[in-house]
Amino acid sequence: MKTFAKPSDIKVGVVGYGGAFNMGRQHLNEMKKAGMSPFAVCEVDPERLKIAEEEFPGIETYGSLDAMLKKSDVNLLVHITPHNLHFPLAMKCVKAGKHVVTEKPFVVTTSEADRLIAAAEKKGVMVSTYHNRHWDGWILRAKQQIDKGVIGDVFRVEAQMQGFGGYGMPGDWWRSSKSVSGGVLYDWGVHLVEYALQVIDDEAVEVSGFAYEGHWESKAPKSYPWRGDMNEDEATAIVRFRKGALLRLRISHLESNPSPFTIGFFGTKGCYLIGWDQWTTRTPGRDGKLVEKTGKHPPGKQHLFYKNIAEHLTGKADLIITPQWARRPIHLIDLAGKSAKQNKALKVKHG
To answer: What is the distance between the alpha carbons of residues 16 and 33, in angstroms, rounded to a whole number?
Structure first.
């Protein structure tokens, strides 16, 4: 792969500027802080393009990716689009010789991941995905403590996201569409699986998937935009690792006992629990009774994602979020969906 002399030589752009959370602006600003140069924006909405021009004076703007790839000298493109567009748009960029970062999830299927990785290797360009939560304070501290042996050997991980009010019908946007989003496991589920993979240093060997669907489908008004194509109400993935550890992931929009977000690491000497506001450890004391400790999560270091991208493209560091790493949660979630449909456990295929 050809490298750049310095980060400022890397001309960066985004595919998708507005929409949810103002992510186009966020990505360009984060790349700028890492020393790279905001250079181009592709956006189908003309009003959003005007905003991009106001916020980044002089930036190139394009109404289509084809026009951008034909006319622009941009080097690195970040894709901030609905999930089902990550693969086809990223593949276009790779074939045009551009480096690529996709918002998470990397892509939707294992096949898409494998084809994109192969194309990038052939063209000699970098492909990664925006796993900035790899550097969340809560998982950095958890991994540090677990690596020290505080809870012994981890044999089970429990991760769940259960809606923010109990019964939470999917929202009126594309993330509620299964054909667009991939399914209920593909949003926060990708983060939770990636957290678990940071701690469980082992190969996954088998995935079982379970799903309940149709409740909100039957309740949705006829005008509901995703009627007939709605995400599962609830889905579970159980991943078995070679040395015996298990990961159970559950995402639910149909929950009468809500606990919005938790991830628990259970070991031979205790457990490490992550909630929104604090961490908790429970370990046996001298008398055999459990000793509980709690504390606030340390700050995250999410800026390290683009710092690493800039260092990698200038030949100063290995890529941390490699496409092979990004493939792992996609493959496990993809298998979970297929397992639920086939009603059987499926073997993991390592890329």
So the answer is: 20
Q: What does the pLDDT look like over 146-156, one tens digit per residue?
A: 999 999 999 99
Q: How many angstroms separate the CA atoms of 322 and 326, rounded?
A: 6
* CB 106 within 8 Å of CB 135: no
What pLDDT band is residue 190 in, cutting at 50, 70 and 90?
A: very high
Q: What is the pLDDT of residue 134?
A: 98
* C-alpha radius of gyration, the chain, whole number: 21
Tell me 198's DSSP state. Answer: H
CA–CA separation, 284 and 289 (whole Å) = 5
How far is residue 71's CA from residue 307's CA, in Å, rounded to a whole number?
27
> What are phi and psi for residue 349, nearest 5 degrees?
-115, 115
Q: Are 134 and 320 in contact (CB under 8 A)?
A: yes
Cα maximum dimension of the chain = 71
- Going along the chain from its start, the domains and CATH numbers come out as 7-130+303-321 (3.40.50.720), 135-300 (3.30.360.10)
pTM of the predicted model, to two decimals?
0.94
pLDDT digits (tens, 9 = 90+) for 19-35: 555 889 999 999 999 99
